[in-house]
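Hi W., the pyridoxal-5'-phosphate complex you wanted:
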Amino acid sequence: MPSINMDFVRKCFPGLKHGTVFLDNAGGSQVVQQSVDHIVAFLSGESVQLGASYAASQTAGAAVADGRAALATLMNATRPEEVVMGATATQLLDQLARSLVQGWQAGDEVVVTNFDHEANIGPWRKLEAQGIKIREWKMPQGADVPDLDDLRALLNDRTRIVAVTHASNIFGTIMPVREIADVVHQAGAKICVDGVAYAPHRAIDVQALDVDYYVFSVYKVYGPHHAALYGRYDLLRNDARNINHYFYGEDKVPNKLEPGNPNYELAAGCRGVVAYLEAFAAAHGVNATGRAAVEAAFDIMADHEAVLSERLLAYLRSRDDVTILGQAVADRAARVPTISFIVNDSSSEALVRQVDPSGIGIRFGDFHSKRLVESMNLSSGDGVIRASAVHYNTVEEIDRLIDQLERQR
Ligand SMILES: Cc1ncc(COP(=O)(O)O)c(C=O)c1O
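Structure:
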């Protein structure tokens, strides 16, 4: 496999020219030029209301439809109608929960975890007010991968959905989603996966994972501030209920789940992410388009990310005053380069604020995985320090961070 061409990569992101070292990518990534170009083109020439018969409206509709198709390509959905677009992953999960519950009975159950971002917990927990029983799948103390037997013990014939993350935004651990999906399906339930922390690093494949619902945020995957929810077509058609205007039929998939329409220019901008991945593949000698290019690009990125992870993890391992949360060794099958740690008995905020003037963007806290971070009773008292890389980061940038961490000792 070719090694990553950093000259090519860095030139594709206008935001990287300004000198900041972005190591808060799990919060939000830089945007590729292709997405910027699509948004500008839409706003400066194509922006009219969709759905009319005149030519300009048809052109605008095609741009938005192409954006939806690009998101389907990114997730390997079987058709664009399986993609619900929205402002954020949190909003889409909230909409999904409000939609699905309309087909459930009081006493039905959902399983949420204590290790997800709240976006995939809160919307399901809110259903308790409608008589839905909530069960919690807990991360064992000291572990960063949950126990499938614990999940099995929570499932029964009233379980309607299990909500779980694909990669932890704290540990960086990649969860065994296919195995989880198999367990969930054997119990007759459905699975809803939060792929927000996974999507910037690996090609999502909803078919190979055999998941029922899957969400990610495009603004963490090099695109605009927009989000996408996959739902298997028959489930969106039959299980999900209309939350749009009353006169939208249940066959209006996916628009029945997009009240008020998604943002058009941002939808159009999503095309830029696939265009970038295609250009990335080509720049690395891979002659592919569409899904094949997406897979080839993320494959090359994953190797580079493992190099970045290992650089930082090796440094953190060398310190006896540091606790790494999650896998301490880089392994592309086991973790993404979202690396959390604490300096034992020291404030995480204080260290991050000392690093801030260097122009390196890292951050501290619970990152809205509040239940998980609180369950760990960390000696920092104020959450973890998180450095989250993506493929456009360089080894030199990691070394600059290490240098800063050394200075604060
Ligand atoms: C793992 C994970 N899930 C969900 C979210 C929420 O995403 P959004 O801002 O699109 O609602 C985040 C945001 O940081 C996240 O890291």
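The chain has a mean pLDDT of 98.

W.
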